[in-house]
Sequence to fold (226 residues):
Amino acid sequence: RKEVEQDPGPFNVPEGATVAFNCTYSNSASQSFFWYRQDCRKEPKLLMSVYSSGNEDGRFTAQLNRASQYISLLIRDSKLSDSATYLCAVREIKAAGNKLTFGGGTRVLVKP
Amino acid sequence: GAGVSQSPSNKVTEKGKDVELRCDPISGHTALYWYRQSLGQGLEFLIYFQGNSAPDKSGLPSDRFSAERTGGSVSTLTIQRTQQEDSAVYLCASSRSGAVYEQYFGPGTRLTVT
Fold:
């Protein structure tokens, strides 16, 4: 089983609709969680950190469920410009360092 | 301010040649990471530098891969005797020290081994 897993999609979303997707992680010692957005042939860009109590940034809402070991991202009122691959990243706190383990990404296509 | 920069943006090399990829992190960021992303794949951790501590090399796929960070700033990733399976985008990221700080990525170097 992969350490961090995502549904690859694509999620085809009508413009203006809401879409949500999850990311599951296998290591219960994971401490920090992030969502990144990656456009085709570009580098990942940080979208938001995920806090234990959940957090919202405009149309984007991130949640953490430690009991079931997953994080989620919800996008409201989808825009054409939201079309991208969304990568979740998980950090384990280890003595030797704090690498991020990424999921394979969920592709979202927003259509008119 | 300036973000993470990487050079070259593209590199085509022949199988068996050595390549060097450069990363210049965000000023003031003490942590630096190298990842690679193969076509259609997720990001794979390679190596992590934090200040003057010994680097975490646990992700390097073979002893053909090495990296150094001079003066706590610029880093160079070296791949010796390149193979076709080394073809990927090599991404560098930096962050402030500490576990809670987010990583910011550079634009990457697209390496093609022919």
